[in-house]
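hey can u run this one w/ DQA bound, need the structure tokens asap thx
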Amino acid sequence: MSKPIFVLNGPNLNLLGVREPHIYGRSTLADVENSCAAHAKRLGHEIVFRQTNHEGELITWVQEARTDACGLVLNPAGYGHTSIALLDALKSLEIPIVECHLSNPAAREAFRRHTYVSLAASGVVAGFGPASYTLALDAVNGLLARS
Ligand code: DQA
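ok here u go:
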């Protein structure tokens, strides 16, 4: 049995559906998890889907992905813009990493235009709402097929 793709989510994403719905939409994180699980299954993968509001916990899960995952989809949320420690953890991975955002941070406030995570990711999918996640899974799957 091959390893799962980890889909990790950072702070405030537990509030999806009620948090700034004009930006993030009405889908809940449970809806996103269900569509990721179904899409991954079609691709022949399983997922481990998690969310945390704590930077250290997110870093621990990234470290776990080093040995227990075949690929990583990461929506770092606000930590993407601030966390060098998260970047350092990501740099220890040798699996495909795809950064994912519901909104398009490049089209928002200036402070969202830079993410540390991008320095370690193979690529970024942003701006497609929940579909950003399934597109990110496609990207991980494509990278795995090439490796
Ligand atoms: C986000 C974009 C980030 O700038 C923001 O801090 C988030 C969510 C997104 O999915 O669009 O919390 O990662």
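The chain has one domain: 5-146. anyway lmk if its weird
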